[in-house]
Each structure stands twice: as C-alpha cells, then as structure tokens.
C-alpha cells in the first residue's frame, strides 16, 4: 500500500537545529515495501525529493518545494553469528543511541564509543559517524538501500559504500538516489576496549572499570558535559570536520603556532582540531542573529532561538574566512546544507 501524502508538513521536529521550515508534501516510510513503491507513485513523479532520518546532519535554509521522505523503518535483531562475530541488523528508522544501548544489553559490545550521537541508524553510514577513537565503518558489514528511480533493492558492502572521514558514497555519487532501509553490523566476539581517547580515559579514571558498559557511560558523560542537548539548544553536533594537512604544511603551521592541537596520521599528515582553530580566532560564544558558536565548544554552532539556516551558513562562512586568513587552513562543513 502506498503511504499517505501529507500537505504542507512542518519539518521543525525533523531537524535538530529546530529550524521552522516546511515541506510542500511529506511521506512517512515505515517499511522497505513502501520505499520500493515510490518508484511507481505517480503523485510524486515530478517532485523534488528530500530524505530525512533524524535530521541531525542537515541545515535546512528554506522551505522545501517537493516531497520529504521521513524514514521511520523499525526493527533490530541478531541475524547470525560465526566463530568471530555477531551480525546485528537494524531498521533505518531506529534511534542510533537506543540501538547502541540495545547491543550492549544483548551482550554484544563494539559500538559503545558511538553512544549518544543523535540521529538514526540509516543516517549513520551516510556520514560514517565517528567519535572517541572509532568510526562506524569499522563495525559495518553491509546495508540495504532502495534505488528511488527503479524501486530495486541493492546490497552495499563496505567497499561499495566508499567510507571516508565523515563521508561515503551516499553523500557524493549516491546522494538523492537511494533510501537506506536497513544496516547490518559485525560485532567481534573478541572485544577489546577503545578507551585511550583523552576525555574518555579521564572519565574512566578511578573507576577501575574498562568494560563496554563503563566506556558507554563515560562517553555519554563526556558528550553531555561538552556538547549541548539539541532538544534544548538546537544544533547538529560538530559543524566542521577536523582538517587534515600535509606534514610539510603542519610543520609550517606549528612554527607559527606552537600550541596547535593536532593528531598525527599514519601517512605522516596531521589532523588539526577544528575547534581549537575556531577558538583561537575568537569565535567562541559569538553570534549572528540567533545563530551562535557554543560558549563551551567552538566546534558546535547552535540555534539560540529564532535562527534561520541562512544565518547558520553566514556564521559558518565568517568562521571559515577567519580560520583561512590566520592559519591558511580550509574548514569543511560536516552537515549537508540545503
């Protein structure tokens, strides 16, 4: 059965910035069959399409003159195991944090470093979400996605997803062409902790625990202490990627800025802390209209109330100009801006 088509649908609750924008039409998709049926739905044949999960990685700058697909496909289950790992599947509409907590409750650790990241399971591969020493792609097995033009289901393995740093096939060549319906993760039975990230290590100090639940709890505590709750202060988490520069460029920068915060990469390049760069340019706490840089974490742009997507982009552009002028480093936004 084809899903209902709703006129003039508010997207305020479907983007974590809380922008008061709307879509000309919206459809709630709760099964793979409904997604596949879109290819033959004449009601939307000539309409622009926008796929939304939790809206945690998008900046909506205006009303959308088309149809918004609101992906809410549920379900989570263990679908198999071998001698090395469990295979766990989740519907694209499942809340990411709740799914991570569920895997721990099943005795299958491996995703705990990614706790409290807002959004849905289906959005996680698009962004290749990562935090505290782990990227989702390291635990990924495969996903299933429907091609909108044909209604045909495709299975994508890790290579086909072309994961990069906060990047994937679905943010580039596949953007707008597919709707992810489910994701399968491979969680090793030979679990080893990832607890060396400085903030997590400090949170674990004195507890004497380094099990998966302790790391989960530490990550949640760190994120709550450093990052604003999007339900209280609208935001999309880290707004900029940490830029990677060559070894030569890093040495030049360090000669001018000895205190620059960086992380050496295996190939000799250096990943710079974008928040440090922004803070050094004096942007922490500053605002343009209702859009502001968070006063505790310069990497997060927030909606203090009444901000528009255009104001957020204006603020981001001003920050990029200042960082480029001072450090000769280009910042790239993490969210998709529409």
Would you mind describing this structure in some detail?
- By secondary structure, the chain is α+β, with helices and mostly antiparallel strands.
- The chain contains 9 helices and 20 strands.
- It has helices at residues 32-37, 96-105, 124-127, 158-161, 198-204, 212-226, 247-256, 274-280, 309-327, and strands spanning 6-10, 22-29, 48-52, 58-59, 64-71, 76-81, 85-91, 130-131, 134-135, 140-147, 153-157, 178-188, 234-238, 244-245, 262-264, 270-272, 287-288, 291-293, 300-303, 336-337.
- The protein has a 5-stranded antiparallel sheet with strand order 6-7-12-10-11.
- A hairpin with a 6-residue loop joins strand 18 and strand 19.
- The chain starts with 5 loop residues before the first strand and ends with a strand.
Summarize this structure briefly.
The protein has 338 residues and is α+β, with helices and mostly antiparallel strands. It has helices at residues 32-37, 96-105, 124-127, 158-161, 198-204, 212-226, 247-256, 274-280, 309-327; strands at residues 6-10, 22-29, 48-52, 58-59, 64-71, 76-81, 85-91, 130-131, 134-135, 140-147, 153-157, 178-188, 234-238, 244-245, 262-264, 270-272, 287-288, 291-293, 300-303, 336-337.
């Amino acid at each position: 059965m084809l899903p209902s088509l709703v006129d003039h649908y508010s997207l305020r609750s479907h983007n974590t910035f809380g922008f008061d924008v709307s879509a000309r039409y919206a459809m709630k998709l709760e099964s793979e069959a409904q997604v596949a049926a879109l290819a033959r739905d004449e009601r939307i044949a000539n309409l622009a399409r926008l796929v939304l999960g939790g809206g945690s990685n998008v900046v909506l700058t205006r009303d959308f003159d088309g149809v918004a697909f609101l992906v809410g496909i549920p379900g989570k289950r263990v679908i198999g195991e071998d001698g090395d790992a469990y295979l766990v599947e989740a519907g694209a509409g499942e809340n990411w944090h709740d799914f991570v907590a569920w895997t721990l409750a099943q005795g299958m650790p491996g995703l705990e470093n990614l706790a409290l990241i807002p959004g849905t399971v289906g959005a996680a591969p698009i962004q290749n979400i990562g935090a505290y020493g782990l990227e989702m792609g390291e635990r990924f097995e495969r996903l299933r996605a429907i091609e909108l033009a044909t209604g045909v289901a495709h299975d994508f393995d890790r290579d086909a997803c072309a994961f990069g740093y906060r990047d994937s096939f679905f943010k580039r060549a596949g953007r707008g062409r597919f709707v992810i319906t489910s994701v399968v993760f491979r969680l090793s039975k030979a679990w080893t902790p990832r607890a060396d990230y400085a903030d997590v290590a400090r949170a674990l100090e004195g507890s004497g625990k380094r099990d998966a639940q302790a790391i989960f709890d530490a990550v949640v505590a760190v994120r709550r202490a450093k990052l604003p709750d999007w339900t209280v202060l609208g935001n999309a988490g880290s707004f900029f990627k940490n830029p990677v520069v060559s070894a030569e460029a890093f040495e030049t920068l360090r000669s001018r800025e000895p205190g620059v915060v960086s992380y050496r990469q295996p190939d000799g390049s250096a990943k710079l802390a974008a928040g440090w760069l922004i803070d050094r340019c004096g942007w922490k706490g500053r605002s343009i209209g209702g859009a502001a840089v968070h006063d505790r974490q310069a990497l997060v742009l927030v909606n203090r109330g009444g901000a528009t997507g255009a104001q957020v982009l204006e603020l981001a552009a001003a920050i990029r100009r200042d960082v480029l002028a001072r450090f000769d480093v280009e910042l790239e936004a993490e969210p998709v801006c529409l």
